[in-house]
Specification:
The chain is mostly helical and 103 residues long. It has one domain (1-101). The protein has three helices and no strands. Helix 1 (2-25) crosses helix 2 (36-55). The longest helix is centred in the last third of the chain and has 46 residues, at 57-102. It is rod-shaped. The protein starts with a helix and ends with a helix. Pfam families: DUF4229. Keywords: Membrane, Transmembrane, Transmembrane helix. This is DUF4229 domain-containing protein. The chain crosses the membrane at residues 35-56. Residues 80-103 are annotated as: Disordered.
């Protein structure tokens, strides 16, 4: 997941540099008043999102598979703990019933 995040950040930074260059060279419009920095960041975000969606598809799929495996492992551990509690509870009840019959 960290790898995907870093790759996504790298694409955004690359787009940010390109948009900044285009705005400062006059090829792309400047923002109004003091909003030039915000304009550059928003434009870079808008451009980097579809690029990341297409380029990082395989990495995103690998990350989601790792997440699914982790979730499945946690679910199986919780189920195993639940079963241990049920067995311990059933054993305690059975011992309590046998002690109640012998008294």
């Amino acid at each position: 997941m960290l790898r995907y995040t870093l790759m996504r950040l790298g694409i955004f930074v690359g787009c940010l540099v390109v948009v900044w260059g285009l705005v400062h060279s006059g090829l792309a419009p400047r923002g109004l008043g003091d909003s030039n920095g915000l304009w550059i960041v928003l434009l870079a975000l808008l451009i980097s999102a579809p690029i990341s969606f297409v380029v990082l598809r395989e990495e995103r799929d690998r990350a989601s598979e790792r997440i699914v495996r982790r979730v499945d492992r946690v679910k199986s551990n919780l189920e195993a703990n639940r079963n241990q509690e049920d067995v311990a509870d059933d054993t305690a009840r059975a011992q309590g019933q046998t002690q109640g019959q012998t008294s």
